Amino acid sequence: MPSSSPLRPTDPRQVGPYRLTGYLGAGGQGTVYVGESPEGQVVAIKVLHARLSEEPQARERFLQEIAATRQVRQFCTARVLDADTSGDQPYVVSQYVEGISLSRLIATQGVRDPDALERLAVATVTALVAIHQAGIVHRDFKPSNVVCGPDGPRVIDFGLARALDSTVAESSEILGTPAYMAPEQFSAGVVTAASDMFSWAATMAYAASGRPPFGNDSIPALFQRILNEEPDLTGLTEPVRSLVVACLDKNPAARPTATDVLFNLLGHGVPEPARETPGQESLFPAREGAAFRAAAPSLSGPFSPPGPSSQSGPASLSGPSQASGGISLPDPGAASVTESLVGQRGGLRSRRGLLTATLGLVAAGVVATGAYFALATPAVPKVVARPTVVPGPTTPVIEPEVTRTLSPDPAYAVAYSPDGKRFATGGGNGTVQLWDAATRRVTATLDGHTKGVHAVAFSPDGKTLATGGDDGTVRLWSLPSGTGKGTLTGHTGGVGAVAFSPDGKTLASASRDRTVRLWNAETGDGTAILGGHTDWVDSVAFSPDGTTIATGSHDRTVRLWQAATGEAAAVLSGHRYWVFSVAFSPDGKTLASASADRTVRLWDVAARKERTVLAGHRGWATAVAFSPDGKTLASGGYDRKVRLWEVASGRGTGELDGPADWVYSVAFSRDGATVTGVAGDATLRVWGTR
Hints:
Number of strands: 42
Shape: globular
InterPro entries: Kinase-like_dom_sf, Prot_kinase_dom, Ser/Thr_kinase_AS, WD40/YVTN_repeat-like_dom_sf, WD40_PAC1, WD40_repeat_CS, WD40_repeat_dom_sf, WD40_rpt
Number of helices: 10
CATH topology of the largest domain: Methylamine Dehydrogenase, Chain H
Pfam families: Pkinase, WD40
Radius of gyration: 26 Å
Distance between the termini: 58 Å
Protein name: Protein kinase domain-containing protein
Organism: [Actinomadura] parvosata subsp. kistnae
Strand order of the largest sheet: 1-2-3-4-6-5
Keywords: Membrane, Repeat, Transmembrane, Transmembrane helix, WD repeat
CATH architecture of the largest domain: 7 Propeller
Helix content: 10-25%
């Protein structure tokens, strides 16, 4: 694990009988500390977040994590030493693992050479063999969850793991890190051992090139590339390259298991066919002749590597492996693991010595533990949701009045001008298009951004258009001419949202660099930086009276800020996953937020509390917009739907059909008669609402 930081003023000094000595980090479920046991042993202590400590579901998830960790053989896990969930501060204690993360290693020492990469591959996939054999899916395998210590690489962080037979795995909660997530994780959160193999391969590609194989920018851009494009395999050599190619297959049923990969790295092909694990399903149909291996594997399973191509290299995955030479005998713990992995299959007996030796090589260096996170915990007031869930709409489906194909690339954002005569869209190809609202025809195309445009906003007087893109810039355009007024720089990550204050004097921009910046809209000078979110900030909005700014982030929170000073006002907690979009009602009394947890939530702004949860989307809820009269809310989602809701009651009033892909952004016309949406199928659609 990374070195700890000093305890912060808000951190406890004692948890149960353990004295805390340092802060390691925080994540979705808990805060992790270094501490000492009463006997003086250095340990890692994970404490459940205060905002979750009163929630039965959070406690259940905590217990699931402890039980799951204990199922993995000790040679590849930091042993759980203690746990207590009965008090006000549930915690789990495990062995402390020394080292630095793979991501930090690559950043400071550079990419791995072929020999080092092969050793890394053997060690980490051996950990996954043991993890999967215990019936566990890691769910968040990535470079920061591989610790490189003096005794070898160790796989850590079971904070996101779920047992394959756990009912929690059937929930709608989607977990993972975007750049390393498998396609099926983006599609409604179905995650299996095959998903771990995709993430493992993406991590190996990162170790070889220093870059995630599908990039690391906005969620929509990543989603499109992971689903549709080929990975960057720079730096990969055989035998790892072909295995990475196979594991990055879009179809989870076609990927090799961890056992398949381990045997191929040993240079001895694959063992007998795998038995299927009941109850596991794939979101994708299996290729003809492909065995289904999405669940926890046995030490067997057919593996048909991809055919030869200019990208995949040789199809044969057998041959000598440098990682298997000069291997000492394993300790008794490793031998017992080997026995359990090999089982009683006669066809595997001849491989037992080889596998035992290899497991012995990595036994001390492949450790999984639930004691490492890399996010900061905010120290501002929090509001924990106590929701009233409203069922989704059951009203008739409304077909679009107009459908326009935009370009080969999708549009990510749409916004109407104050007078309602035009609207603007931001495209994945880096262009901004201006449209005539009456004819629904493009009147101008604005070029300037070098990457996809995810944010568009008109100034209150309609004379300026602000746009934000994956290139990390905010651009200002004069209207109606469309000439550029200036470029605002300062963000170190892509810009996902922009918003003008009601008086037009201030522009806010939200970024993947975890900050929101405020700018003087006339001069372009930066006036403030709002820091506090611990992950990407995807959305920003001003209240109608201009006194409050709302932001939504991948850290699962909605935050309120004082617009005049930039000071944090409140943290609204309740969403279980990324928050993509926020919007104030026209009267400023209600705030809506859309999340990857498939819900839209309505918040009472004055009371700082949640009012209603709107549950109806069957995938991520990605966008929200209020009608001009504030009576109706539109929400877009990954389920390819735009849904209408009655704000007062939370009742669903309509389902707008048509998109063939994720709905990125929605906006009402100024008279409220139509809703316009843009989607991942590179279309713009307009629906009537009356």
